[in-house]
């Protein structure tokens, strides 16, 4: 498989390879493998949250209400209460 990257990214990759003593292909493989694991984990979390909402195990809250609660919590922390 060939992967094409922007010149700036290629330069960073070459610099990292030179300083780390690792082959650029190995660095790309490790980075891509880690990224794909993270994406799979996020997907699993989102699927689980969706299932929770669909089944009624959790109830959605209004976005504005959520932000209001966060602001109040933050204000209480700042005021020491």
Q: In terms of topology, how is this protein built?
A:
Blueprint: H1 7-20, H2 24-55, H3 63-78
Helix content: over 70%
Q: Would you tell me the overall average pLDDT?
A: 95
**Poorly predicted regions:** none
Oligomer: single chain
- Spell the H/E element sequence: HHH
Q: Tally the beta strands.
A: 0
Q: What is the count of distinct domains? A: 1
Number of helices: 3
Distance separating the two termini: 58 Å
C-alpha-based Rg, rounded? 22 Å
Report the principal-axis shape. elongated
Q: Beta-strand level of the residues, as a percent range?
A: under 5%
User: Quick one: biggest sheet?
Assistant: none
Strand-pairing-aware structural class: mainly alpha
Structure, explained:
The chain is an all-alpha fold and 81 residues long. It has one domain (18-78). 77% of the residues lie in helices and 0% in strands. The chain has helices spanning 7-20, 24-55, 63-78. The mean pLDDT is 95.
Keywords for this structure?
single chain; 81 residues; mainly alpha; 3 helices; 77% helix
Question: How is this structure best summarized?
Answer:
This protein is mainly alpha-helical and 81 residues long. It has one domain. It contains three helices and no strands.
């Amino acid at each position: 498989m060939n992967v094409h990257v922007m010149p700036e990214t290629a330069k960073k990759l070459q610099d990292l390879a030179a300083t780390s003593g690792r082959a650029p292909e190995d660095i790309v493989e490790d980075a891509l493998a880690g990224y794909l694991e993270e994406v799979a984990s996020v997907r699993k979390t989102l699927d689980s949250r969706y299932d929770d909402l669909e089944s009624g195990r959790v109830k959605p809250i209004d976005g504005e209400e959520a932000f209001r609660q966060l602001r109040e919590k933050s204000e209480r922390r700042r005021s020491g209460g």
